[in-house]
Description:
alpha/beta; L,D-transpeptidase catalytic domain-like; elongated; 18% strand; 13 helices; three-stranded antiparallel beta sheet
Amino acid sequence: MSTPAPVPTAPAEEAAVPAPAPSWPLADAKQLLSVIEGIGKRGLLARDYEPQALRAALTVGEGEALSTLASKLFSALAADLRDGRTPIAARGDWFVTDTDAQTMPTDIALQVALESHDIDAALTRLEPKHPDYAALKAELARTPAASTSRIGQLRINLDRWRWLPQSLGDKHLLANVPEYMVRINTYGRNIAAYRVIVGKRDTPTPQLSASATGIVVHPPWVLPQSIIRQEVGPLIARDPALARARGYVWTGTGKTLSVVQKPGPTAALGQLKLDMPNDHAIFFHDTPNKTLFANNPRAYSHGCLRTDRAFEFGILLSLLQSGEKLNDATARNRIADNLVQLIQAGDTAKAAFKSSIPVHIAYFTVATAGGTALQTFPDLYGRDASVLAALAAPRQATPAPELSAAPPVTPKG
């Protein structure tokens, strides 16, 4: 009987040895301390970055201890200025894709800082570049220290900008929920603004990023179970004829009830919607009830953003991604005619974009509203308090957790 050959085993893994911290000259470490002591001007707290420990290390002088501490504190500052100081759990329905940590990695920023001997400039490169961020910093600098409430508002909204990618896209949509507005931007210029109706307090619009891929005309509405249970299911049970008259078709009963609202003149999604696939089924769409756009506040939806002048909105977005000039009347008319023909045909159809357009749905309670002067908006969903509390709490030693993909859901409308 032969002896079985030994089963090969993988060699035991050696314990990872952390790379030694890069050497910090005394002058660079003093620069870092100066940045930390003045970090309040950027809406962060100096105490989070151990200024006392750094002063003590500077007293001892150059060496491994100073280099290790300075590298740690620089990395913490870099992460907070680039990605935000607020943990994800405190951000409130936040589902934004932010790749800044990959495109502007901390180790490269540290290398640049030490090679250039300009610590402040290396950290500044990681901050948001949007004009609103600069306006918030300028307002913070001139706000009296006694105005603690205003300082808190400014710090909250500065950090919210850090949660977004530094580049929103050469052409993009940016909606601000507390303002009830969405703006179309191209190459740093705001070219159009539209009123929107946002989610009610009990069905809030989340903060998310997505890519718009086209315009859907005569969109059907697949109702989520929450709306079926609370609104449409009882209507079907009470008055099925009225439910049919409102365009609802359904299958199943009870817990298996599935409902779709067919396109039509009174359909909840109106004549068109912006197709922007995302795990939360949030999108911009038309509405038959256009009188609500005159109201303020405008929080009536189940989470989606009903858009004023939706036909114009669709034409402009279609023109924006087509490669045609925005002031080309011939191109604008051709795109408008195409959408009109699709609508007149009466069928559900998609006018696909040649290239996708980034969409960002944000939540700023202090913003310039497309101008230069900052305006303050009511905290519709009460999200400011958790952010302010997180900014005041001790800084987390570990990075914020990665976002997990949310399960697919049906459109909220």
